[in-house]
Amino acid sequence: MVKNNINWQESSVLITGGTGSFGKKFVETMIREKKPKRLSVLSRDELKQSEMKFLFPQNENSPMRYFLGDVRDYSRLIRAFNGVDIVVHAAALKQVPATEADPFEAVQTNIMGTKNVIEAAIDANVKRVICLSTDKAVNPINLYGATKLVAEKLSIQANAYSGGMDSAFSCCRYGNVIGSRGSVVPIFLEQKQSGKITITDDRMTRFWITLEQGVKFVVDCLETMRGGEVFVPKIPSTRIVDVAKSIAP
Fold first, then answer.
1. What are the distances in angstroms from CA 221 to CA 75, 163, 194?
2. What integer is the mean pLDDT of 73-84?
């Protein structure tokens, strides 16, 4: 069981998948508000990392560190986690059509990658690990949701798997981040230009959260977690048809 208080100024924080929409906002928030001793970004996208270095440089006056690597690679994780106190596991394949088309890839990243994060965190004696999940993990009807459900199960059981080590694992599960890369709002805005918006099923609803709210939620979860929780925020839902009508009346 971990203590609730975090001395951020003395903590080393690492985020996997840190060059995505969430990762960039998380880094921005950490630097502005929490000022950790070290803040590391691990991702497999060298272009996004180089772009991110312009916004958050890595130098002797900065807490920033960048690691090229994939959560599928345990040996890379164990090296990156050296001296790290807190891990935010945000790396995942998230696109529902893509994960349906290439299910083995989704399993390798979302399930096996989470397993690697857990084992590397235990072996590196990381104190807190929080796994970002999704509302689609509840009664999943697609592969993405199913892989995230398994990732949640692995993360929660990791508290027993870690044995006598000090590592604690929790999950936070939230909805669709408004305007994030590849999400429905940018797609609808683009489709609006053609005069035709595609909806898979007009009975669908979506739970919505802003990027800022998502980051604050994760930080709050880190500060209150003791290990074993699945945190779920209270957020509004909207029919997907209403979203489409508001974007393209």
1. 28, 23, 42
2. 97
Alpha-carbon torsion angle 134, 137, 142, 146, nearest 10: 120
- The pTM of this model reads 0.89
List residues with catalytic annotation.
Answer: 136
pLDDT digits (tens, 9 = 90+) for 84-119: 999 999 999 998 899 999 999 999 999 999 999 999
What tokens appear for 15 in the block? Answer: 């985020």
- Residues of 31-61 as b/e, b for ≥16 C-beta within 10 angstroms? beebebeebbbbbbeeebbeebeeebeeeee
d(CA 6, CA 207): 30
Instruction: Enumerate residues 6+ apart whose C-beta is below 8 A from 197.
Output: 188, 191, 244, 247, 248
CA distance 60 to 12: 15
Residues in the chain: 249
Which amino acid is it at 68?
L
With H, G, I as helix, E, B as strand and everything else as coil, classify residue 231.
strand
**Amino acid occupying residue 236:** P
Element (H, E) at 246: helix 240-247
Nearest to 179 by CA among 20, 32, 15: 20
